[in-house]
Amino acid sequence: MATQRLHFDLDALKQFQEAEYSRNLVLKTAQMEIILTCWKPGHETPLHDHGISEGVALVIEGELFCQEVFPDGFTQQSQITTGEVIFTPKGVSHLLRNNSSQNAVTLNIYTPPLDANAKFLDLPYHNMIEIDPSFGQVLLDSSILQTLFHRA
Length: 152
Known about the structure:
The chain is mainly beta. Helices cover 8% and strands 43% of the residues. It has helices at 10-13, 142-149; strands spanning 3-6, 22-28, 33-39, 54-61, 63-69, 75-81, 85-88, 93-97, 104-111, 125-128, 137-140. The N and C termini lie far apart (35 Å).
């Protein structure tokens, strides 16, 4: 399998929509999907799950309210802020909402990629980068990782 190094300008991928949060595709392979999600104040998802996929969301900017509903009916609420990650295992439903007065940005990673079995809004990608599906692995440039995971 080939390793491919890709360089992304995350600021260029940030696209905010007025009516709803925007899903900006960064990378999609047969094994995973990475989406940069942009949230204006008041934007929210409906209660949804990710089907057979597990997901993580890293808050890059701002903060989001999260409500999770577990298969046994247990409900949990939390506020996630810049630098924090929330993990959503398969079978857990959740909703996310930007209750703040500032924009928020999350980097979402799903494995396997989201599919039709998920209870999810059929929202389009608002921005995407075409990736050759023959790539076996993607290696992000270290400066991208520093931007994502080592914010001051």
